Structures are given as C-alpha cells and as structure tokens.
Amino acid sequence: MGPGVAERLFTAEQLARLTSLARCDPRLVAHDLTHPSPAVRSALATADALLTCWGAPVLDACALAAAPRLRAVVHAAGSVRHHVTAACWERGLTVSSAASANAVPVAEYTLAAVLLANKRVLESARWYAAARAPADWLGAPDERGNYRRTVGIVGASRVGRRVIALLRPFELRVLLYDPYATEAEAAALGAVRTGLDELCRTSDVVSVHAPELPETRRLIDGRRLALMRDGATLVNTARGSLVDESALLPELVSGRLYAVLDVTDPEPPVPGSPLYTLPNVLLTPHVAGSLGGELHRLADAALDELERFARGLPFAEGVRPDALGRSA
Predict the structure, then answer these.
(1) Which of 144, 286, 296, 297 is flagged as catalytic?
(2) In what order do the strands lie in the sheet with 49-52?
(3) How many other C-beta atoms lie within 10 A of the C-beta of residue 188?
(4) Residue 46 C-alpha from the chain's centroid
C-alpha cells in the first residue's frame, strides 16, 4: 500500500489480530514491487497472501514472479482495478475487496444529502444568516420537506443498494435505474425500476452511484439535466466523469438546479470554478468514503477475510474477474 496508509489503517488491536492470523511483520510495508527492498523480496518469496490498500503497487507478471507461493490478495479498500492485473487471474489468485465496508460511509453521506436537500437546508441557512429573523414556516412552499418526495438512484451498486436500504424508514418514493437490475430485483430492494430519462424527469433528488466505465462517462449529460424538474437536486458521490460538468454549470449558475457534489471532473475543480461559491451547491473534497476512524472498518473487513483464508474458507467478499466489466 502507499506510504503512510498502514499507520492510519490499523489500530494496535487490529495489528495484534493480524499477527495472530498470519506470520508477518506489520512494520514491513511494500510500496514498490518493481525495485523491492531485500526485506520485501524475502517476504514475497514465502508469501501466501498480500494485504493491500490504497496506493498498492501493480501486481503484474514481474511482481508475481517474485511471489511463487502467492494464492490470495485481500484488499482493504474498494476497487482492485488499479493493482490487480490479468496476470493475477491467469495465476488463479483469489481476490477479496472491502468495497462493501467502504460503501457504508458513502451511503450515510448520501442519506444525509438527500434528506437535507429536500428540506432546502442550504437555502434556509443562507437566508437565516442574511435575514437574522424568524422564518415564515407556514409560508414554505409544498415542495419543501421529505414527505412523499421522489428520490432517483442511478446504479444498483453496493452504495446504491445501501442508500435504498437507508431510505426505507422514510416516506419517500424511490426509483432505480440500472441496466442489469430487473423489476423484481428493484422491488425486493424497495424501489421501482425505471428508465434513466424518466428517473431524471420525475425525481426531486437524483443520486449517482454507477461505476466509472467507458459507457457511463457523461451518463448524466446536458439532455438529462434539462429533463430534471426545476429545484431538483443532483447528488454525486460516485465519480465526476459520470456527470457532464460543462452542462451542469449553466443549470447551477441559473439557480434552476441544486447540487451536492463530493466528486468533480476535474478533481478538485479548477481554481476559478463557480462550484466553490454558488449558493445552491454543497461541494466537498471527496470525503464521502472512509476517512478518519472509518478506515478501521476497512481493516476489520480485510482481517475477517484473511481469517477466512487462513481457515480454508472462501472469501465472503470475493471479486470475480467477469464482474469487473460492470463494477467500479
């Protein structure tokens, strides 16, 4: 994993659990497998499993040649696309990911964004700061509030599914667009399957949770943004490339739409971007995923998988190569 990651990932108790599960030196962290240090080279020669996280070096054929006993990769983060290569699958390695654990804080962030967006909290807070007077709550228009509002979820990913589950206690109508989800699957989750255009047209909040793939680039384009009703909110905690920012900006500058953006394209936005100052935009620096103490949830998930591997059990959160074509 990258420099400094291991120190933030594990607590002392988790390191103790790690050393109880496997023969390892928790002080030895490999940042570079192209020119490994003698200590890393020696560890690779006898390694049965690698525990990886953000910043992991690429596991190509050259790196794997130095690890003849390697059988598994346990990733204490989400996507394995950046370091697990075709050579890993050709070797027959089993791979696990903590993507489900990382989905938890993203879904929590999204839930908060949806509820606050429908309540028009940004607008109310700025009005209150300027007026410094009691609000006319009886005069609030009907479109404010969460009762019977419509939330559109774009993508039945781990995060998308968890968001739907978190929305269940609230009296909201939830729509789902996912080309791979059936009507029955959507209904089982607690949503109504619909087309993307219809979702954009009828939702009060549109929340993006699709993977970053060539076919999802600019999925929310100018035409679909124009379909969104006046005063609707776009929430993006997935990847900035899924939204056409050049088309989104005019909609935000005009005040027709609202946005909660944890990701942008580029990231961060250019210094002069209106996203920093628009009153109808909540812009955060890619913090919806695990951070701070939430990193220890990822470590727990990885250690659980390492324990299953040590006991000869299959991974609970295994990654299949055939599923990577439609996942993050």
Answers:
(1) 286
(2) 49-52, 72-75, 94-97
(3) 10
(4) 34
3-state secondary structure 268-325: CCCCCCHHHCCCCEEECCCCCCCCHHHHHHHHHHHHHHHHHHHCCCCCCCECCHHHHH
Which of 193, 239, 251, 308 is catalytic? The answer is 239
What is the spatial distance between Cα 25 and Cα 280, in angstroms, rounded to a whole number?
50
Is 296 part of the annotated catalytic residue set? no
Q: Are strands 205-208 and 72-75 parallel, antiparallel or unpaired?
A: unpaired
pLDDT recorded at residue 143:
77
Positive or negative, the CA dihedral 266, 270, 274, 276 is positive
Is there a contact between 44 and 36 (Cβ–Cβ < 8 Å)? yes
Q: Which residue has the tokens 């994993």?
A: 1
Alpha helices in 155-287 (DSSP H): 158-167, 183-189, 196-202, 222-227, 245-253
Query: What is residue 325's predicted lDDT score, i.e. its pLDDT?
Result: 67
73-91: average pLDDT: 95
CA atoms 80, 86, 88, 93: torsion sign: positive
CA nearest to 237, candidates 292, 284, 281, 294: 284
Catalytic (active site) residue 256:
no
Residue where the block lists tokens 């600019």: 218
Place of tokens 């988790």: 14
pLDDT band at 123 (very low <50, low <70, confident <90, very high): confident
Residues 205 and 231: beta-carbon distance below 8 Å:
no
> What does the pLDDT average to over 99-113?
98
Question: Could you tell me the sign of the dihedral formed by the alpha carbons of 259, 175, 154, 147, in that order?
Answer: positive
pLDDT in tens, 301-325: 999 999 999 999 999 999 998 877 6
List the alpha helices (DSSP H) in 32-137: 38-46, 61-65, 86-91, 99-118, 121-131
> Known catalytic residue: 307?
no
Alpha carbon distance 236, 304 (integer Å): 30
Strand partners, 318: 96
